[in-house]
Amino acid sequence: MMQNIQMVDLFSQYNHIKTEIDNAILGVIEKSTFINGEAVKQFSQHLADFVQTDNVIPCANGTDALQIAFSALDLPKHSEFIVPSFNYVAAVEVGAFLGYKPVFVDSLLGTYNMDTDKIEQAITPKTKVIVAVHLFGQCVNMDKIMGIAKQYNLYVIEDTAQAIGAKYSSRRGWIRSAGTIGHIGTTSFFPSKNLGCMGDGGAIFTDNEELAQKMRCIANHGQAVKYTYKMIGINSRLDTMQAAILDVKLKHLHKYIEARQKVANYYDNAFKNNKNIKIPVRYESSTHVFHQYTLQTISKEKRNEIQKKLAEKNIPTMIYYPSPLHLQEAYTHFGYKKGEFPVAENLCDTVFSLPMHTEMNEEMLAYICENLNEFLK
Known about the structure:
Blueprint: H1 10-16, H2 18-31, H3 38-51, E1 55-59, H4 62-72, E2 80-84, H5 90-97, E3 101-105, E4 127-133, H6 142-152, E5 155-159, E6 167-169, E7 175-177, E8 184-188, E9 202-206, H7 209-219, E10 223-225, E11 228-229, H8 240-250, H9 253-271, E12 293-296, H10 300-312, H11 342-350, E13 351-354, H12 362-375
Parallel strand pairs: 2-3, 2-4, 4-5, 5-8
Antiparallel strand pairs: 1-9, 6-7, 8-9, 10-11, 12-13
């Protein structure tokens, strides 16, 4: 009998490392230091070593990571920040919440990442930040972004929530981890992420010591010393239990990345000759850790039909994302209109994602691919 196929199978992943996870949780309970325990410091250092950055500032979730990053930059009121419209909402909502204006840019067909050729035309005297989102698991063109940032004296915040562990190879000869190239990197440990905890969690990366101290302070109520408040801050902590779980999972992250890449390779080979769908394009400059495996079809109607047919075969699919951010009600007051970012709008109508996780086996993959190819003959 075919095993139940899930978009993400966290329980099976847990079962493979159950003893390690259970011992880590028990260790926290035995020490009962549930806030700012030793596991938080230990995980932060191990993650810093993994991505090769000087500072990892843990926090409560990926959205807080972005808010702390924006807050640390002390931007003038009414500043603008550049961000892709085809994207999850977190970076946009945080910037807008802090009083800044999102300036959207379009995306690229195939890679789904921000079209870096459209950035310069979006820059105004009020532009202060480029949010470089590494969508679905591979790095955006960071050579181009960092070059523009240097030319126009802009900050770069990398949102690497979907690309932890990806490596970017610069045309200048260096190789660095996603999240460590810009001025600040942020990530999320939401359970379904490639490195996910069993609750909420996030982290911030930077090699800039001044920014690191400031972000630690902001995340801790604005205090560097207890009960002494240097600035207005928030309360954003990665709790000890989640840190202990993440520290276990971090040891397996390379293996998890390889498992996801193996699934993606299987999908690629199965669909590469199917003219009714487009497989994701992989940059030569970036490894791809495949947080999602996203296909594109010819129309919204065809996409919806595919989803329905696959659901009848108990094959789940998801749409990331069903509507571009510039057309969402919360952001219409910024004045964007339908048609301004045609690629983003087209992607929202035509993309769908297949199951992608570390526990997929060949039987599942064959079943998914055979059914989709049969339907799209």
